[in-house]
Amino acid sequence: MVANVTINFVTINDKTMDNFELEQFLPYRLNRAAEFVGLRFAAHYKARYGMTRPEWRTLAALGSSGRMTAKAIGVHSSMHKTKVSRAVAALEQRRWLKRTEDEADRRLENLELTAAGQQAYRELIELARQYQAELDAEIGETGVQALAEGLAKVETVIRKSARGKKLPEPDDL
Predict the structure, then answer these.
(1) Is 37 inside a domain boundary?
(2) How far apart are CA 71 and CA 26, in angstroms?
(3) How much is the pLDDT for 97?
(4) Does 50 reside within a domain?
(5) Tell me, what CATH number does 124's domain have?
(6) Domain range enclosing 91
(7) Does some domain include residue 68?
(8) CA angle in degrees (0–180, nearest 5) for 114-115-117
(9) Rounded to whole angstroms, what are the CA distances from 111 to 22, 57, 90, 108?
């Protein structure tokens, strides 16, 4: 048996909502652009190496910084610890990464690339350079320069506002 149901629709007629354009909201635009550019690059390394984004980020962090802990990789690449852990395990299975116990604190493991991992990193960096050149050509010299200057300003503002404050982790939001 169906009971009588009343549905009331609420119409919001707030002028501030009428003037908000999501497509012009800077955080939304930056996130969409970053996601698009990142996914497009991911297609390149996934096709060549079958790597996931966390694996690429972990490999890139270790390749550019050398020996790191899993926690440091997470901070460096803005990844949650479970994603880092899975990426480390996958890279270790490929024999691209090795673990060593930290001499000062046995609870920690230092991670670094093996010779095979360093070779894969060099190949992926060449792939990244090619992708960067492709983007530069598509955006044009003036566009690349304007984007670089704009991002530098955003990063300066972020650094100033973050001084002395702990920013939330991406997965905490």
Answers:
(1) yes
(2) 30
(3) 96
(4) yes
(5) 1.10.10.10
(6) 27-141
(7) yes
(8) 60
(9) 41, 14, 13, 10
